[in-house]
Amino acid sequence: MSALLPASGIEAATWLKDALIGFASDVVSIVPSGYPAYARLLHPAYRSSTDEPTRASWQSVADLAGLAIDKTIQWEDVIAPLPEQAFKFFEPPLEGTLDQETCEELMPILKAHTSTPSLCWYGVWDGYSYLREACRNASRISLNGRRYYLLRGALPLSPASLCTGPFFQWANIFWPDDRAWCVASEVDFRSTYIAASEGAIVDLLARFPGEVFRVDPNERVTLRGSSKKPDAGADR
C-alpha cells in the first residue's frame, strides 16, 4: 500500500455532509459546493490492439467517427458511431477511479494549489472486496448513500493502488486539509470531478487539453457524463 494511514475518526470528513448536495444528480453531489470553479476529467480509454494497452483520449477515439466531444459527452456516445470491428481495439475507461498514469500527472498540479500537501484525506468506497487490510482498519463515513473508509497522509506524487488485485484503485474522493480543492471519482462514473480555485482549474485545462472540461456546479450528471439542467418550463 502507499504511505496512507487509516484515520482514527471521521471529523476531517464531516464538512462534506453539508457540502455535498443530493446523490449522483448535480456536479455538487459528486464534489462539494462553494468552490470558485469546477471541472470534469475524462478517464482515458485503452488501445488493446497491442501487447501492452496504451492510453487513448476520448477525442482520439471519437476522431475515428468524425465526432467532436464536449463536456456532456458519454463514453457510449463516443463508441456508438464506430463500426463493430473497432470495438475490439479499445478497452473502456475505468469506472470509479483514475488510472495510475493520470494520477501521477494530476498530483503535481494539485500539490501546487494547496498549503497542506503533507496532510490530505482520502475516502475509498467500502463496497470494494479487494481493498487492502489497512483500508479496512480505518474509520468509515457515510456520504450521500455510500460508505467510505477514511485514510490520511501526504499527497503522493506516485500513488500506489489501494487494492490487492492486479488492477489500480485510487481513492474515490480526496482533499487536502486546507480544503483548497476536492477530487471525486464516483463509483459508477468514467470521469472524475474536481472542485478547486480558478487557478487550479486553468492549470488542469492546460495540462489535459481535450480531456478536462469546465463545468457548472449545478449541471446535472448522468451515469458517465453531465448535462445542463432543463429550463424551469421545459418538459421533463
Structural summary, described in words:
- This protein has 236 residues and is an alpha+beta fold.
- It has two domains: 5-42 and 95-224, no CATH class; 45-91, no CATH class.
- It has helices spanning 15-19, 58-62, 75-79, 100-112, 133-136, 198-207; strands at 5-6, 37-42, 45-47, 54-56, 90-91, 120-125, 140-143, 146-153, 173-176, 182-184, 191-196, 212-214, 220-221, 226-227.
- The strands form three sheets. Strands 1, 2, 6, 7, 8, 9, 10, 11 and 12 form a nine-stranded antiparallel beta sheet that branches. Strands 4-3-5 form a three-stranded antiparallel beta sheet. It has a two-stranded antiparallel ribbon with strand order 13-14.
- The protein is globular, with a radius of gyration of 18 Å.
- The model is unreliable at 228-236 (pLDDT under 50).
Secondary-structure map with pairings?
Elements: E1 5-6, H1 15-19, E2 37-42, E3 45-47, E4 54-56, H2 58-62, H3 75-79, E5 90-91, H4 100-112, E6 120-125, H5 133-136, E7 140-143, E8 146-153, E9 173-176, E10 182-184, E11 191-196, H6 198-207, E12 212-214, E13 220-221, E14 226-227
Antiparallel strand pairs: 1-8, 2-11, 2-12, 3-4, 3-5, 6-8, 6-9, 7-8, 9-10, 10-11, 13-14
Helix pairs in contact: 4-6
